[in-house]
Amino acid sequence: MKGCRNCACWQALEEFLDRIDPATQDQKAQIGLCKRYAPRPLTPETESGAGGPNRAEPRWNAFWPRVASDDWCGEWDPQFD
Question: Within 17-63, where are the H helices?
Fold first, then answer.
């Protein structure tokens, strides 16, 4: 069964959801990071200090998307061991 849990681009985290992953034997769905594409930047945060105390410089944060082990984007790339 296709799913993020067995995709080469998925990296598991030690965080679990309160539901069963249908492709596993009664194990909970797990959260992981999808690293198929580069992370997308979020809205910039302001950081004071650069340019003086009254000037705020924007700082962009980017994160890998968090997805559940039983999600599937349609661009699944099989993970071979």
Answer: none
Name the CA radius of gyration of the chain, rounded: 18
DSSP helix/strand/coil, 22: coil
Q: Which of 28-32, 36-40, 53-57, 75-79 has the lowest mean pLDDT?
A: 53-57
CB atoms within 10 A of CB 71: 17
Buried b (16+ CB within 10 A) or exposed e, 13-51: eeeeeeeebeeeeeeebbbbbbebeeeeeeeeeeeeeee
Looking at residue 61, its amino acid is N
Looking from the CA of 4 toward its CB, the CA atoms found within 13 Å total 22
Of 59 and 32, more confident: 32
